[in-house]
Specification:
InterPro entries: NTF2-like_dom_sf, SnoaL-like. This protein has about 140 residues and is of the alpha+beta class. About 30% of the residues lie in helices and about 45% in strands. The protein has a five-stranded mixed β-sheet.
């Protein structure tokens, strides 16, 4: 069954809200177990939700958390039972007293699972070029 724009928007909003709240359970529930992740801050692709979650939990064990996360410039491209969600992300995160501000572009691929739910199956994060970062303000 093809995805609808509303389903993708709802899934993306839920994922971004969980990230912004540093809500580990809700955030990782938004991803398929075999989801892959490409982050410009990591030396290699993360090959599963479990691999990314282990990395995330190593950060949060040190007190790392999201202070704010703003999603702008959203685009949803429907592709049958999958969809591509792109947006600009302005995030403030870090450990207490050492938060960093980042401006990035993110692509998340969503797909309908066998049980009918909509989950992220791939995430790609890259730094936003200076011009793009300035437009997000």
């Amino acid at each position: 069954m093809d995805l609808t724009r509303d389903e993708v928007q709802t899934a993306a909003q839920r994922l971004v809200a969980a990230f912004a709240a540093t809500d580990t359970e809700a955030y990782f529930d938004a991803f398929a177990e075999d989801a892959t992740f490409v982050f410009h801050t990591e030396p290699a692709r993360l090959e599963s939700r479990g691999e990314y979650r282990a990395l995330w939990e190593s950060w949060t064990a040190e007190g790392w958390a999201i202070e704010s996360c703003i999603s702008t410039n959203v685009r949803i491209q429907l592709a049958g039972p999958s969809a591509i969600f792109t947006h600009d992300v302005h995030t403030v995160a870090g450990t207490p007293g050492a938060a960093e501000e980042t401006r990035e572009r993110e692509t998340i691929v969503f797909a309908r699972t066998a049980d009918g739910s909509v989950l992220a199956v791939h995430e790609h994060l890259s730094p936003a070029p200076a011009a793009s970062a300035n437009e997000a303000e």
